[in-house]
Amino acid sequence: xxxxxxxxxxxxxxxxxxxxxxxxxxxxxxxxxxxxxxxxxxxxxxxxxxxx
Length: 52
What we know:
elongated
């Protein structure tokens, strides 16, 4: 999830520098959060499958 964290940092910086509107950066950060959750669930399920 390192790349998503890097992207999150870039979006935050872009917002602070006023290159992005706050609404757009919030939407993007929400999407990143959801993707991180999906990856986490996928990894947990994958670990369970490999333990069978």
